[in-house]
Amino acid sequence: MKLFLLIGLFAVSSNAQQERRFPDDFLFGAATASYQIEGAWNVDGKGESIWDRMTHTKPHLIKDMTNGDIAANSYYNYKRDVEMIRELGLDAYRFSISWPRILPNPLAPYEVNQAGVDFYNNYINEMLKYNITPMATIYHWDLPQKLQDLGGLLSPMFPEWFEHYARVVYEKFGDRVKLWTTFNEPREMCLLGYGGDEKAPFLNLTDIGTYYCAKNLLLAHARAYHAYNNDFKPTQNGECGIVINISWIGPLTDSEEDNYAAELKRQAEWGIYAEPIFSEQGGFPKEFAEVVAQKSIEQGYATSRLPELTEEERKFIQGSFDFLGINHYTGYLVSANEYKTANAVPSLLDDADVGVYISDDWLPSASDWLKMVPDSLYNLLTHLKEKYNNPPVYITESGWSEDPETGLIDDERILFYRTALNNALDCLEAGVNLKGYMAWSLMDNYEWIAGYTELFGLYEVDFKSEAKTRTPRKSAFVYKQIVKTRVIDPDYEPTDMVMTIDEGH
């Protein structure tokens, strides 16, 4: 483990000698999500979400048998949360709005829960009081259970339900929120929730769950984007995008076969969500769509398991963005013939049918999916710059998990942030239109099926305490120093681990 740290720190040190700076208007922030921090799951008229239902009825699916009923209790601790943002000197805070807290009956968008609106008004106003820019995610996985009972994202009605909800939040909060994202991580919702069994609603419909979810999500995103663009932006003057989790996927070798395999995997993992919105031609990615169509016929399906977009739908979705939000953590390499594992048939993973290679030399985190991959952020953003004509980009999540036993001295997380942010500087120098970086996460929170066993917080949360006490980790002081100076100093060490609010924050 020490070898990893020494190698990484040497790389960071050599890069930072040039005293490269982030622009003054670069937006530094941190991110959280409603279900993961708010608690108050059945308080003040809030409705039931799919994560409420799942964690209460099937707790065995969670690694430590816990839930988000209380979590960090931010419903009551939001002023402390904003105080932490001030302590860090951040420019922005990315949070999400709970659909069932705003619309307990999501089929009745004119019956708004005023207590829910009041909570987010207080939250937003507390941020603006201290010149913190709010970035609001409209949907971060806590779907109203009532909509899941009607099919959730597999229902053709979902785009309409989502537009109604989006209009409510634009109307209630858009006078102050100027950065909106419609969905957080379509891949995780569709592949892991509908096509798999790693996220709620755990449907595991491997053949069509991912693809039907993807189409309805894209249409819902476009409806919400156009609603904002046409009816709210003229007076509110904000921007609207989408957040996609994108790992760097590269070829294992320089062979033509591995390069094609890597491209096919990119199309399968994130291209089916990004390509229809950001590409010049629109529609689902061509090569992968052809593979799914051919396999579907061979498997006895009447049509492709990846549903087609009509010409009208293609045009409606294409270009529905003001910026691209990217959650980026890691990466891996792809082989056309080696390192393959058995997958469900039919499924997206079987459709792509490639091998995945993860080097033993990459530093592992507390999460089995998260390794520190050299230059992954740089490789990804320069690739997207060329692929999608350099759209405005925010890194909306990026972070490192450690075990609860790690405590406050989180040197691996510091290494991750220094490495990632040096990559971000490399991207800026390469002309990438990178506008900001949001650390995941402001504080420890409920990490879905991992429960509280994998922690990402700049601030440690004492989940056993009634107050859910927040304490800054060493990484919080390092991140604060980077934000304050706009420079990554590899030699900076906090002296007393006492956090204060600097003048002006």
From TrEMBL:
EC code(s) of this entry: 3.2.1.21, 3.2.1.46
Annotated catalysed reactions: beta-D-glucosyl-(1<->1)-sphing-4-enine + H2O = sphing-4-enine + D-glucose; beta-D-galactosyl-(1<->1')-N-octadecanoylsphing-4-enine + H2O = N-octadecanoylsphing-4-enine + D-galactose; Hydrolysis of terminal, non-reducing beta-D-glucosyl residues with release of beta-D-glucose; beta-D-glucosyl-(1<->1)-N-octadecanoylsphing-4-enine + H2O = N-octadecanoylsphing-4-enine + D-glucose
Top EC group: hydrolase
InterPro entries: GH (IPR017853), GH_1_N_CS (IPR033132), Glyco_hydro_1 (IPR001360)
Lineage: superkingdom: Eukaryota
Secretion signal, residue range per the UniProt entry: 1-16
Key words of the record: Glycosidase, Hydrolase, Signal
Molecular function GO terms recorded: beta-glucosidase activity; galactosylceramidase activity
TM spans (from-to): none
Coiled coil, from the record: none
One GO-annotated biological process of the protein: carbohydrate catabolic process
UniProt cross-references to Pfam families, sorted A to Z: Glyco_hydro_1
Family from the record: Belongs to the glycosyl hydrolase 1 family. Klotho subfamily.
Protein name: Cytosolic beta-glucosidase
Organism lineage: Eukaryota, Metazoa, Ecdysozoa, Arthropoda, Hexapoda
